Amino acid sequence: MKNWNELEKSSFFDANARERAVGLCDKGTFTELLGPQDRFESPHLPVLGTAVEFDDGTVTGVGLIGKHPVFVVSMEGKFIGGAIGEVNGAKMVNTLRLALKAAKDIKAAHADDYDARRPLVAISFETGGVRLHEANAGLLAHAEVMDAIQDCRRILPIVAVVGSKVGCFGGMGFVAAATDVIVMNEEGRIGLTGPEVIEQEMG
After folding, report:
1. Which of 5, 47, 59, 63 could lock 29 by a disulfide, CB 3.0 to 4.6 Å apart?
2. CB neighbour burial string for 157-177, b if at least 16 within 10 angstroms, e if fewer
3. Domains of the chain: residue spans and CATH
4. What are the CA-CA distances from residue 53 to residues 12, 59, 168 (Å)?
5. What is the pLDDT of residue 45?
6. What is the mean pLDDT of residues 60-70?
C-alpha cells in the first residue's frame, strides 16, 4: 500500500478502500478497526462457494482531522462489487455507534471547546448495493445502517464521499442520500440501479 505522502499525490478514483481510508485522515493518525488480521469474514459466502476477504470488503477505522476524530468506513469495489452483507454491514453500523459514543464522551469532557473537537463520520462509498448472496441479511444491514445514521442526526455530521470506480448504487444510494453532505468528484455516480445490473437485464 502507498504511504500517506504518496496517497496525497495519487488519484482518489484509482485508490483502493484502505488507501482511501488512510488518505481521508491526517498523516499518521488512522487506526484500522477489525482489519484483516481479525478475520471477520462472511459466514454465508463459503457455503455458496464464493471466496471471502478477511475484512469482508470494507475498511473501518478512526483518525483525526485537526482535533476532530474522524470515523471512517471505506468500501472495496473489487470485492463482490462493494456489495453490503451481514458482516461489513455490522462494521458500518458499529463504526457509527462508536462515533456517537465518542461525541457524547468528548462533549462531557470538553464542553467548553466541543465544536473544535466534534467527531465526524466519513463514508467512502464504492458499492453496487445489497449483497444478493446474503439476501435478507444484506437487506437488514442496509436498514440498520439507516437507523444508525438517524441516531447521529443533529449530533455529529456524516459525510458521504463518492468518486471511485464502482460508484454508489442500489440500497446504498439511499444510505448516501441520508447523510448530511455528499462530496463527489467528476467520476462520482449515485443511483438506484447500477450500470452492470441494467446491462445484465436490458443488454
Report:
1. 63
2. bbbbbbbbebbbbbbbbebbe
3. 52-202 (3.90.226.10)
4. 22, 11, 20
5. 82
6. 97
The answer to whether 84 and 56 are in contact (CB under 8 A) is: no
Contact between 23 and 4 under an 8 Å Cβ cutoff? The reply is yes
* Residue 147 burial (C-beta neighbours within 10 Å; 0-12, 13-18, 19+): exposed
Asked if 100 and 73 touch (Cβ cutoff 8 Å), the reply is: no
Q: For the whole prediction, is pTM greater than 0.70?
A: yes
Mutual angle of helices 86-109 and 136-152, in 10-degree steps: 10
Residue with the three cell numbers 454491514: 89
End-to-end, the C-alpha distance of the chain in Å comes to: 37
Backbone angles phi, psi at 135, to 5 degrees: 45, -120
